[in-house]
From TrEMBL:
Cited SUPFAM superfamilies: NagB/RpiA/CoA transferase-like (SSF100950)
Protein name as annotated: Methylthioribose-1-phosphate isomerase
Pfam families in the cross-refs: IF-2B
Record-level Gene Ontology MF annotations: S-methyl-5-thioribose-1-phosphate isomerase activity
Species lineage: Bacteria, Pseudomonadati, Pseudomonadota, Gammaproteobacteria, Pseudomonadales
Organism the protein comes from: Pseudomonas flexibilis
Length: 353
């Protein structure tokens, strides 16, 4: 399966070349494929904040390269570059609050700087570390796809339609994606013949991004407006709800794209299995419960004209309790019916990076 997935690789969210970070501007998809060349930590932070680059893993990878760009500028300016670089760390971290992968990636780079040997080139060291994070995420996606495919095979009851929400595909990662990696593997294996995609308001990640990715892969895809997903579960034969995650708490609660929580409630009622597919870097053992997480809210202008004086609730994520999740799939392995003990045990296993 690995070879078949690699042969089908088509979409890239970002590339590091000629000393610049090039990102595919997700705001313009699917109408136009436009690449942005980012040359500073500030430009990368803005691209994350404005959702030109968006997704659990890809924001962390982008932030890592943003710090590489920041270090280059700090070294050129002279003086105490380590102290000056702290501002770039914070600027990039603040670009997307709540992203566990972003925090993890920046911590990896901070730790690499602390391990510099006498006389070692910090620029080369940091660039290599960012490249390692990108490569390991691609490998993690492939492992997640294989683990997820094994679950689809094990629970195959002849129902080969799945539902997904948000975007957890190639655009959100360094490879094939987490949730969409599983779906892509299932499609190649004949176990996914139809994908229903939630619209994903207000940014429409499902209808703009996920549907675009799947359609390009030749996977039969149907976009359903968010208010219709309960009707779809009731009227269609769907076996799985497969979603990604931004952060997974120590007890197995999952923070994911807004709208995921009510979908899992509906899935339980209609007999769908719920799979959360995410790299283990999204697991935060320091977060005891998902409800302890401070959830980011976006601007009211994304939903309504703020001049009309009507209040707007526009959160980016919601939290799904662990007891609504059948299985969490990571590159380290699979946890069925997640709880604190199982999450802790999983994180003791070897990671890819």
């Amino acid at each position: 399966m690995r070879e078949r997935l690699l042969a089908a690789e088509r979409v890239k969210a970002l590339e590091w070349r000629e000393g610049l970070l090039h990102v595919l501007d997700q705001r313009l998809l699917p109408a136009r494929e436009t690449w942005l060349a980012l040359d500073s930590a500030g430009a990368v932070a803005e691209a994350i904040r404005e959702r030109a680059v968006c997704g659990a893993s890809v924001v962390g990878i982008a932030a890592a390269y943003g710090l590489v760009l920041g270090l280059r500028a700090r070294l050129a300016a002279g003086g105490d570059w380590q102290a000056a670089l702290e501002a770039d760390f914070q600027h990039l971290r603040d670009a997307q609050p709540g992203s566990a992968y972003l925090d993890w990636a920046l911590t990896c780079l901070r730790n690499r700087l602390r391990r510099l040997a006498p006389g070692e080139d910090p620029q080369a060291a940091l660039e290599a570390e960012a490249g390692s994070i990108l490569a390991s995420d691609r490998e993690a996606n492939l492992a997640i796809a294989q683990f997820g495919l094994e679950l689809l095979r094990r629970h195959d009851e002849g129902v080969h339609a799945v539902l997904t929400h948000g975007n957890a595909g190639a655009l959100a990662s360094g490879g094939f994606g987490s949730a969409l990696g599983v779906i892509r593997a299932g499609a190649l294996d004949g176990l996914v013949e139809q994908v229903f995609v939630g619209e994903g308001r207000p940014w429409l990640q499902g209808s703009r991004l996920t549907a675009w990715e799947l359609h390009g892969d030749g996977v039969p895809t149907t976009v359903c407006v968010d208010a219709a997903v309960g009707h779809v579960m009731k009227s269609e034969r769907i076996g799985w709800l497969i979603v990604g995650a931004e952060r997974i708490a120590a007890n197995g609660d999952v923070a994911a794209a807004i709208g995921t929580y009510p979908l899992t409630v509906l899935a339980m009622h209609h007999g769908l299995r719920v799979m959360v597919a995410a790299p283990s870097a999204c697991i935060d053992l320091g977060l005891e419960h998902g409800d302890d997480l401070s959830l980011e809210e976006r601007a009211a202008s994304e939903v309504l004209d703020p001049a009309n004086g009507i209040g707007v609730l526009n959160p980016v994520l919601d939290v799904t309790p662990a007891d609504l999740i059948d299985v969490i799939v990571t590159e380290r392995g699979v946890i069925e019916r997640p709880d604190a003990a199982k999450l802790a045990g999983l994180m003791c296993r070897k990671r890819l990076h």
